[in-house]
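ok, trying the design again with the full structure, not the truncated one.
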């Protein structure tokens, strides 16, 4: 079975992370899933972006078994597969340690919705997970990182917030494919930067008015969306 197209999609999206300056050296990874085949393509562990090729992408099934590839998959693979198993609508996952999103993750606070740029992409605050417990750390750390994220979305749709920050760790984003997951990683970093500047200029500022949040999110998303070309 050929996975050439899946590997190429994952490779191009990983390289876009580098082009967008969201990664330093090898800090980050992107995957894309082929749900019909039940496999993902993901960046190999610890390989600098400058050294990557499409052939280096590793094919892994949703039980984390390597199906094809000469290199070890990303150490975050179990987080990716956990998200694919629990969020059926997603087709790509991105993880970075981008500066402003990671800074918010290190505060262990949600990123508040302070303006319409944020509201265009996320319905409400960008959530921060709970801090991982000692018991979770002693189990499968990367799998438990996925649990942190899915626990955070028990009362929320991953389609309404295609991004999350993991407490003390960093951001994860997702989308219909790997390219869209990277797109959301770029948006998250920009929104995190804006929120930092806004709270620096006016520390006590509250969230944007709910009616404006509703208007901006719903004009781009859902059955009544009218933004862009049909």
């Amino acid at each position: 079975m050929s996975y050439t197209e899946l590997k190429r999609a994952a490779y191009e999206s990983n390289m876009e992370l580098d082009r967008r300056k969201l990664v330093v050296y090898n800090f980050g990874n992107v995957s894309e899933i082929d749900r019909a085949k039940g496999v993902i393509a993901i960046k190999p562990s610890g390989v600098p972006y400058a050294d990557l090729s499409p052939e280096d992408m590793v094919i892994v099934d949703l039980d984390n078994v390597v199906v094809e590839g000469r290199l070890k998959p990303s150490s975050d693979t179990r987080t990716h597969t956990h998200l694919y198993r629990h969020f059926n609508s997603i087709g790509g996952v991105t993880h970075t340690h981008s500066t402003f999103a990671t800074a918010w993750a290190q505060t262990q606070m949600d990123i508040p919705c302070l303006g319409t740029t944020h509201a265009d992409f996320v319905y409400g605050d960008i959530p921060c997970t709970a801090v991982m417990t000692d018991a979770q750390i002693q189990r499968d750390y990367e799998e438990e990182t996925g649990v942190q994220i899915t626990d955070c979305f028990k009362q929320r749709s991953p389609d309404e917030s295609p991004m999350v920050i993991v407490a003390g760790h960093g951001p994860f984003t997702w989308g219909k494919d790997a390219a869209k997951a990277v797109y959301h990683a770029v948006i998250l970093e920009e929104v995190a930067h804006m929120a930092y500047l806004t709270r620096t200029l006016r520390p006590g500022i509250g969230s944007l008015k709910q009616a404006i949040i509703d208007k901006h999110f719903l004009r781009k998303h859902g059955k009544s969306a009218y933004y862009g070309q049909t």
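Keeping the full-length input from now on. The beta strands are 28-34, 39-42, 58-61, 66-68, 92-96, 163-166, 170-175.
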